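Milestone M4 deliverable, item 7.
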Amino acid sequence: PSDPTQLAQIGDLTRDPDLGTRYSAVLALGQIGNPASIPAVRERLALAAGPAGLVPANEPSDKIRRRAATALGRLRSPQAVPLLLGSFADPDWQVNYAARDALAELGAAAVQPLLALAAANDPDAKRAALVDLYIRQALGRMNPVPLAELTSALQSPTVRVRQVAALALGESRAPEAQALLEAVAANDAEPTVKYAAQRGLQLLRVAAAPTSAAPPASATPAPPAEAAAPAAQ
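Output delivered:
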């Protein structure tokens, strides 16, 4: 429904004490896809400032936080982008992955904010590596691939941005990616960026290789301990 009264009624159900009711309400708002629902869905992400950054405040269910992140991607509004970027700090890795996929679904509106996050200086190397993993996967899974923005990012003065852009191109499977990555691997002055370009080329080769059988279905794996080569700033 697009009727404001009906949306408000569903929004009220996102605050219901019953977990199943909250989940169903958030699911319904995502399916409706009206950006007017963002405030209600944002409450179920329940992010608040804490001593370690953004942490869950009022929504104890990681299942609902994951559903809220997915719903924000389906609302197709740039207003959802900073909320989803904040969800990279959620302690549940499946919420992180849901935010990554939602940002990929939002597409063009999320490209520059994702690259800006890659440019930010994070003193925690392990956390930065995981965030870089989410950023590059979100960028690489967009349809259409943000080729012009990633090509420009390969010239960034920030090493971490160049690394992320190279790996995102590898994730993208774009036909133009191979030549771009070969040039970076040959010419970039920073060894970690060269390594990222080589990894991107490996990703392209793996994607292009024929597979004899489909892998068995499995749950989304937890993020690796080392998501990328250490970035020099």
